Amino acid sequence: VWERFCDTYTSPETRKIMPEVLSVIKAVNHRPMHEDDPGFIKFRQNTLQKIEQLESTYPFLNFAAEKALMA
User: Fold this and answer.
1) Smaller CB count within 10 Å for the chain: N or C?
2) Which H or E run includes 58?
């Protein structure tokens, strides 16, 4: 059903970036047991880089809230 909906109501460009945006959303929603863990700090930095890349490539995307949560 979801695939049919996407094929009908979204553009090919939107379908292309949906998995990337979803991965950012999942990363932002991740809650570590220890926020000061070096692995999580690196994870947070990588997520922020991915956000910056997506915003640069697709200027119509706005990840202000996600960046605030990852900062």
Assistant:
1) N
2) none
